[in-house]
Write a structure and sequence with these properties.
Layout (H helix, E strand, L loop, with lengths): L15 H10 L5 E5 L2 E2 L5 E13 L5 E12 L11 H12 L9 E7 L6 E5 L3 E3 L2 E8 L5 H18 L5 H11 L22 E2 L3 E3 L6 E3 L3
Parallel strand pairs: 1-8, 4-5
Antiparallel strand pairs: 1-2, 3-4, 5-6, 6-8, 7-8, 9-10, 10-11
Length: about 220
């Protein structure tokens, strides 16, 4: 199984390799996932680990290809069971890897259900060791417009290049989203790359921004 570079920084959407490195660092710590504002029940099971390779056409008519690993969690109570230790979770994944090719750098998605409610898709945040317990927060995996995501990343990159030091990575992206545009030290005399996007900005003539970044919509040809 391909493994991740251990220097990967903390993020709110980790991959399997990053998770395994964290589990190996605290093998005896109980592993507790949290989602929807509550901890998973102590009797939870890993019911599936599967790998998928996808080819698709995005909403900008651009071909896309990616790999994704899915870990299915069954959130139940079962007798006097306690949360499994980190090493057990890691051992299960590595057992699967003996039979299924798992790419440690592929996108990691958790499928979670209590067996009654519909299964939900989640991304995972970096594990945090707190009070001897290894906590992993799961957050809903939202739908995404890939042309818009690429445009946003380029907007942040251009803003950083013209405005000097700025928040990096996802923090910068969130700043753009919350403000509806990039504003920083160049507000007084904005560089063209720092101005709010044109109402008619396009990617490949498909996606355009109606009212800045929050209004970007995708249209078919």
């Amino acid at each position: 199984m391909a493994m991740l570079d251990k220097t990967q920084s903390a993020t709110d959407d980790i991959d399997l390799g990053f998770l395994l490195v964290a589990l190996d660092a605290s093998p005896d710590a109980p592993l507790v996932f949290s989602y929807g504002g509550a901890d998973i029940r102590p009797g939870y099971h890993i019911t599936e680990v599967k790998a998928g390779h996808f080819s698709a056409l995005d909403c900008g008519a651009n071909p896309e290809a990616w790999s994704e690993i899915f870990v299915q969690l069954w959130d139940i109570e079962e007798g006097d069971r306690t949360h499994m230790p980190a090493r057990k979770f890691a051992a299960i994944v590595r057992k699967v890897a003996e039979h299924v090719a798992l790419d440690g750098s592929a996108r990691l998605t958790f499928e979670v259900s209590d067996g009654v409610a519909p299964m939900q898709l989640h991304k995972a945040s970096s594990p945090v060791l707190r009070g001897g317990v290894l906590h992993v927060d799961l957050g809903p995996r939202p739908a995404s417009c890939k042309p818009r995501d690429r445009w946003l990343a380029e907007t942040v990159r251009q803003a950083s290049s013209c405005c000097g030091p700025a928040a990096e990575g996802r923090n910068a992206a969130r700043d753009v989203l919350s403000r509806g545009g990039v504003r920083s030290t160049c507000d007084a005399a904005p560089h063209p790359a720092c101005r709010p996007p044109s109402p008619h900005a396009r990617e490949e003539g498909i996606c355009r921004s109606a009212q800045g970044i929050m209004g970007m919509t995708c249209q078919s040809r």
